[in-house]
Specification:
The complex is a heterotrimer.
Chain A (H helix, E strand, L loop, with lengths): L6 H18 L26 E8 L4 H12 L3 E8 L1 H13 L6 E3 L16 H7 L6 H4 L3 E2 L9 E2 L1 E6 L2 E6 H6 L9 H13 L15 H11 L2 H8 L10 H15 L12 H9 L5 E5 L3 H8 L3 E4 L12 E2 L2 E6 L6 H13 L1 H11 L19 H15 L2 E2 L9 H13 L6 H17 L1
Helix pairs in contact in A: 2-14, 8-10, 10-17, 13-14, 16-17
Chain B lengths: L4 H29 L19 H9 L2 H33 L4 H11 L4 H15 L6 H24 L3 H9 L4 H29 L3 H6 L12 H7 L4 H21 L1 H13 L2
Helix pairs in contact in B: 1-11, 2-11, 3-6, 3-8, 4-6, 6-8, 7-8, 8-12
Chain C lengths: L11 H40 L2 E2 L7 E2 L3 H8 L1 H31 L7 H15 L2 H12 L4 H8 L16 H26 L3 H9 L4 H12 L1 H16 L3 H6 L11 H11 L3 H30 L1
Antiparallel strand pairs in C: 1-2
Helix pairs in contact in C: 1-13, 2-13, 3-7, 3-10, 4-7, 7-10, 10-13, 12-13
The chains are: A alpha/beta, B mainly alpha, C mainly alpha.
């Protein structure tokens, strides 16, 4: 396998490459954006023809299986094909899947990114009118909107949620009892006292992992309490001039650094991924863990009555609650051949009692939709009941913020994960964390 | 032969050590795969009650039949075509020694050093343009092209070493070029071709980057490319993940064990030729 | 590379006519391979070069940006860090396997070609057969906090060294590198062993009679005799080191921090997750140039030795 390149042959190669280049010069890459599907007439009636709807979803997210099964039971002429890939692969492939010749009808899409600008997503505004979704909570839908100039939070509706999540803190009540803790902390300072006590008693204060970035549930939970909610949101929605580098965010990040210095996190935190930290908390390790409602059913099963769930405490007692929460966002491909049918399915998920029950049972998330609809039945005193109460509380406080990981397509893998790994192991300061993430943001948005 | 006793002893000890070190991760996979699926095992311990059922479960959860089918399809398309056109080209460049052969050869050889990662972005948009994206063809076509540098180089190295007298004798006997190729050259080339077959099979079966990028549905990928899907599917269970990973590497290991002599010879010659 | 041998004068004319026929037929035979190679290697390479001069998100319109993407590749600390990491990996993919292979092959060169040696060769080759992604899975589990590596360290009284190897800033990159060593050492050993077998035994006997020791024998006979194999292995393993993707993708995703970030992973991430096709293409081209820049001198060196 040896390379012999004489001067002459190098010329040959060079000429070949140059020749190929010549053929390409002058024509910039990039196809014209796919056409908007405006040929279809909006209908809220379900077809009685045989239809196969396709869904691209992430692995480890079984709710679409149950929902589609129930839908097919109710409407046998509609069947589904679901493909699954890991979250990271799916997010990497999503724009190109949508731009392909055969896009999935429905796709799990955490970040809208350039997809609206490129005309890849179906605009749901006509259906919003037709189905009367104006009765649904506006705050829940606003992160799913995007304006024409690519700013999220307002404009046309491009996504809906298969459940609307809320995040908070789980506390192991066994450890709490050992430490004499009787109720959830009301302030961050109170929570820190509890963690000091835990540390002193040899109990891990916070079970968290960061090999895949999930410690950012903790990072953002703290930032939320210090930052100005609107300012933070404007950054997540990519409003022009918005910045991550605010005093509130720095304070939150510095708090994380302080917690890292004090040893509140597991020492091998960067080796722990989402599923490991969930498993380890389920096995009784750690006083607190930061997670979402989707983990409620699993924790309940593992820990029974020895666990509770509450919203992250504010800085001062009695301040309103702020928590990350987001739609489990799915978008309809602009190129879908079954626009009416797939939107019917989405509307059905928000309105049909069985579907709403499935959402709650499997994900523990609020089913969303018209607040006047009866809520699905849940076991009294269960974590899922707590999760629904928390959703209601956040709704009442208007305290929902999006996940900062959804700010841009590349920011989570490209910056937030690596920088948070450095932050929680005391390699960089909170200010450095914020500055670096902002620098990446500017580069990605600008470049 | 003069060698000191200590050298011999040290040599064997080191060899034994290398063998053990090579085997540990594989044995560790097996031991992990046999632990109860709902618990995460600790280190390298042979299970007291081996759960062979894990393999059955991993097989079903991982849709292994479909994956194997998909891999087999890709292999069956890539390998014969690559073999055929590389053999023809190798014969032309090595056996016929056409004018301009040198320049063509150099063009191919340069391809040996191009990392797949350098081409993956354009390959994606090419597949999109051809409409093959997210089908197995998106991997099949580029793989045939990407295997050409090595395959042509390999077959040429064989043909260039076939004595010219053989073909001259055939010509004198009045054989056409085609007859000569089929009756004389091809039988002689069989060992080289079969070695290349094994190499191409393994390389295709184990190909990771192309299927991960070019085929969105993990179940339409090669088994290696589907390992990311396994990671997602078995996230809760290290035993099942290991069982799944073992299942998908077994066909390659079987092929290797059957053809190991040819295989080792192939790889060695492949490396040194030229 | 051979040149056409000269034939004697009377047969020259006939030979020339035959050669012309052979030329035409030959080119027809080369054509399919050339077409496949041109379409799926050369053409993408050219489009990659083209993309690298644009700012393009892969879907919308593209803007010409000249060399801006290349400037980013060569100035952005993250991207440079990835390149630096891949050079560190060369130590583990090239130096360790080739070094170990040399030592082992030298020491066991006199071993009889019996069943034991053949079995050993088979085992040493196994890592070549399994997908790198599977090696990544196997080793992630070995390196885990509760994995076999820490278990072994504890067992031999080195428990204080135990750590989550892939999550520790100091050890993550070497740990990933050692996966490469594991994959490549067998290949190097077996190849070098075969190479040594081809060296004339009488050379060894002569130098021993001369009273030379192990080291001089190694320097004056073994090393020069293996020059060709060494060039091949160094080339092969360096390309593997610089284009690592599978192992990192499966085991660390570039973490912790950016300790194991490599160009292959960044190209994937920038090109597909961030949809910055131009920058990713430029990085791909830089990576190819780097490989060529490293590989060509080795080839030249090996050839100078030949003369």
């Amino acid at each position: 396998m040896r390379l012999h390149m004489s001067r002459r042959s190098r010329t040959v190669v060079g000429a070949a490459v140059a020749f190929a280049m010549l053929g390409l010069a002058g024509c910039a890459p990039g196809a014209s954006a796919p056409e908007e599907t405006d040929g279809v007439e909006v209908s809220t009636e379900l077809t009685d023809e045989e239809v196969v709807l396709t869904i691209a979803d992430e692995t480890g997210f079984p709710v679409t299986d149950a929902l589609t099964e129930e839908f097919t039971r109710q409407y046998p002429n509609v069947t589904f094909e679901i493909t699954r890939d890991t979250f990271q692969n799916l997010t990497a492939n999503a724009p190109r899947l949508l731009a392909g010749a055969n896009p999935p009808d429905l796709i799990r899409l955490p970040t809208i990114g350039d997809t609206v600008k490129d005309g890849l997503l179906a605009n749901l505004d006509p259906y919003y009118e037709a189905y009367g979704w104006d009765a649904w909570p506006a705050s829940q839908l606003s992160p799913l909107r995007m304006s024409e100039d690519g700013v999220r939070g307002s404009g046309s509706l491009y996504q809906l949620g298969l459940g609307y999540s809320v995040t908070g803190i789980y506390m192991n009540l066994n450890h709490a009892e050992t430490l004499g803790i009787t109720e959830p902390p009301k302030t961050i300072a109170e929570m820190e006292e509890m963690m000091d006590a835990a540390k002193a008693a040899g109990i891990l204060p916070i079970m968290a992992g960061d090999s895949d970035g999930v410690v950012n549930f903790v990072v953002q939970a703290l930032m939320n309490q210090y930052a100005d909610q609107d300012e933070f949101l404007s950054w997540m929605f990519n409003e022009p001039g918005a910045t991550y580098n605010t005093e509130g965010n720095v304070q939150g990040a510095e708090k994380i650094r302080e917690w890292a210095d004090k040893g509140y996190f597991p020492s091998d935190i960067n080796a722990i991924d989402y599923f490991t930290f969930v498993t380890r908390f389920s096995e009784g390790e750690g006083l607190f863990t930061f997670n979402g409602n989707w983990a409620a059913a699993g924790y309940q099963e593992a820990l029974g009555d020895d666990v509770t769930f509450f919203l992250a405490p504010p800085v001062n007692e009695g301040d309103r609650f702020i928590a990350m929460g987001a739609a489990n966002s799915f978008s309809v491909a602009a190129g879908s051949d079954n626009l009416n049918e797939i939107v019917y399915f989405l509307n059905w998920i928000h309105t049909n009692p069985e579907a709403r029950q499935i959402i709650v049972d499997i994900t523990g998330a609020s089913p969303g939709g018209d607040p006047s609809l009866p809520l699905p039945e849940v076991e009294p005193g269960s974590l899922i009941e707590k999760a629904l109460e928390m959703s209601a509380q956040i709704g009442a406080d208007n305290g929902q913020v999006d996940f900062m990981a959804n700010t841009t397509a590349g920011i989570y893998a490209g910056s937030i994960i690596p920088e948070s790994q450095l932050l929680v192991t005391s390699q960089i300061t909170g200010r450095e964390f914020v500055e670096r993430v902002q620098a990446f943001y500017e580069q990605e948005i600008g470049g | 032969m003069i060698t000191s006793k200590t050298e011999i002893v040290i040599g064997r000890v080191l060899l034994a050590l290398a063998v053990v070190l090579t085997l540990i991760p594989l044995v560790n996979m097996l031991s992990a795969a046999l632990q109860p699926a709902d618990r995460n095992p600790a280190g390298l311990t042979w299970p007291t009650d081996p759960q062979w059922g894990n393999f059955v479960e991993a097989f079903e959860v991982g849709n292994v039949w479909r994956l194997m089918g998909s891999s087999a399809f890709i292999v069956v398309c890539v390998v014969p075509i690559a073999l055929l056109i590389a053999t023809l080209a190798g014969y032309a460049l090595g056996g016929l020694r056409i004018r301009g052969a040198r320049a063509v050869l150099v063009l191919f050889v340069v391809g040996l050093t191009i990392p797949f990662e350098s081409l993956i972005i354009p390959l994606y948009y090419q597949a999109q343009g051809l409409g093959t994206l997210n089908t197995q063809w998106a991997v099949i076509f580029p793989l045939i092209g990407l295997f050409m540098p090595f395959s042509v180089f390999w077959m040429r190295a064989h043909f260039v070493n076939v004595p010219r007298e053989l073909s001259e004798a055939a010509r004198v006997d009045g054989a056409t070029m085609w007859q000569e190729f089929v009756r004389i050259q091809l039988p002689l080339a069989l060992p080289a071709i079969s070695a290349l077959t094994i190499l191409l099979f393994i390389w295709t079966w184990n190909q990771f980057l192309l299927p991960v990028v070019l085929i969105a549905d993990p179940l339409d990928r090669t088994v290696a490319g589907a390992l990311t899907f396994f990671q997602g599917q078995y996230y809760l269970s290290i035993p099942l993940l290991n069982a799944g990973a073992l299942i998908i590497i077994i066909p390659a290991i079987i092929v290797f064990l059957i053809f190991q002599r040819q295989f080792i010879r192939a790889l060695l010659q492949g490396a040194v030729k030229g | 590379m051979t040149t056409t041998s000269t034939s004697s004068a009377p047969r020259r004319a006939a030979a020339r006519a035959a050669a012309r026929r052979a030329d035409l037929a030959g080119w027809l035979l080369v054509l399919p391979a050339l077409a496949a190679y041109g379409t799926f290697v050369i053409y993408p390479l050219a489009t990659g070069i083209q993309f690298s001069f644009y700012d393009w998100n892969g879907i919308g319109a593209a803007t010409w940006v000249g060399l801006e993407n290349y400037i980013t590749v060569l100035t952005n600390p993250d991207l440079l860090g990835a390149i630096r990491n891949s050079f560190v990996l060369v130590a583990f993919f090239t130096i360790i396997p080739v070094g170990t292979g040399l030592v082992l092959a030298t020491l066991i060169r006199t071993m009889r070609d019996g069943a034991a040696l053949r079995a050993a060769q088979t085992v040493l080759f196994l890592p070549q057969i399994i997908p790198l992604a599977a090696a990544g899975i196997a080793w992630s589990w070995m390196y885990a906090q509760t994995g076999a590596v820490n278990q072994i360290l504890n067992a031999i009284g080195l428990g204080f060294l135990a750590r989550p190897w892939l999550a520790d800033y100091a050890t993550a990159l070497p740990a990933v590198g050692l996966i490469g060593s594991w994959v490549l050492t067998g290949l190097c050993t077996v190849l070098l062993l075969t190479g040594i077998g081809k060296i004339d035994v009488s050379l060894y006997e002569a130098i021993r009679l001369d009273g030379a020791g192990w080291f001089r024998e190694f320097i004056t006979i073994t090393l020069p005799g293996l020059r060709q194999e060494l060039a091949v292995l160094v080339t092969l393993t360096m390309i593997a080191a610089l284009s690592t993707f599978d192992i990192i993708y499966i085991s660390t995703q570039g973490g912790p921090g950016r300790a194991t970030l490599v160009p292959g992973l960044l190209i994937f991430r920038i090109g597909f997750t961030q949809s910055d096709v131009g920058l990713a293409s430029a990085f791909g081209i830089v990576m190819m140039v780097l490989v060529l820049a490293l590989v060509l001198p080795i080839q030249r060196l090996a050839r100078i030795g030949d003369r």
